[in-house]
Amino acid sequence: MAKAVVDLLSTENPVLKAYLFWSAVLVLKMLFMSLLTAMQRFRTKTFANPEDLPSKKLKVKFDDPDVERVRRAHRNDLENILPFFAAGFLYCLINPEPWIAINLFRLVAVARIAHTLVYAVVVIPQPARALAFFFGLLPTAYMAVRVVLFCL
After folding, report:
1. Could you tell me the residue range of the domain that residue 31 belongs to?
2. E strands present in 18-123
3. I want to staple 74 with a disulfide (CB 3.0 to 4.6 A). Which of 9, 33, 87, 122 is the partner?
4. What is the model's pTM?
5. CA-CA distance, 68 to 123, in Å (whole number)?
6. Is residue 2 classed exposed, middle or buried when 0-12, 13-18 and 19+ CB atoms within 10 A define those classes?
7. Cis preceding linkage at 65, omega within 30
8. pLDDT tens digits for 54-74?
9. Contact 81, 30 (CB under 8 A)
10. What is the rounded (10 degree) CA torsion for 83, 85, 86, 89?
């Protein structure tokens, strides 16, 4: 039994290796969101703290629609990527079929990147954002359900 867990947690395991890769891609994507927020703040001269104001002529401002759009996209990442990290890791531990697992991880990552692109970078009308959201949510939910069923 212990050896089986060690094998699942080995970087020789293609499922774990794919999970690590796509999780790292999503970490980089979320870090990019912080930079995108900062870029929007400087572009629109919208700063939330007095010490951040580059000029005494500017005032603290909280309601710029472009900054808030990026912040909402970032918050949506936190609400969806963090559960993927947990569900994906647990899914790796139940020894899933590699082809299915690898493509689920890939689908979540591509969907989250697409979600940011259509929500915060190049705004595209619905259903683009909803499709990207659900193509990330459904695989994560599937993995979590598979783990629950495995443990029953």
Report:
1. 2-38+65-151
2. none
3. 33
4. 0.89
5. 13
6. exposed
7. no
8. 877 788 888 889 999 999 999
9. yes
10. 150
